[in-house]
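Sequence only, no structure available. Ideas?
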Amino acid sequence: MVMRLIFGKLWGWIVALGAIGAFLAGLYAKGRSDGKSTELERQRKETDAAIKEKRAIEDDLANDSDSELDERLSRWVTD
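Reply:
I predicted one. Tokens follow.
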């Protein structure tokens, strides 16, 4: 009778600890998932900004004449 009472209380604590552990594991997984989504969104925005900047530079170069391109490039080349 005493063993059954002790085991019953112990079993209740084990179940409670298991439920708490499962809850914490769920929170951890949700946090990792949210963090991954946030980071992927940040990287996508950064990539979009870099692509826009690249297109702006290419458009600027495409609109320059040959002499203007030579003048711009001469700043980067040393003789």
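Residues 41-73 form one domain.
Hope that gets you unstuck.
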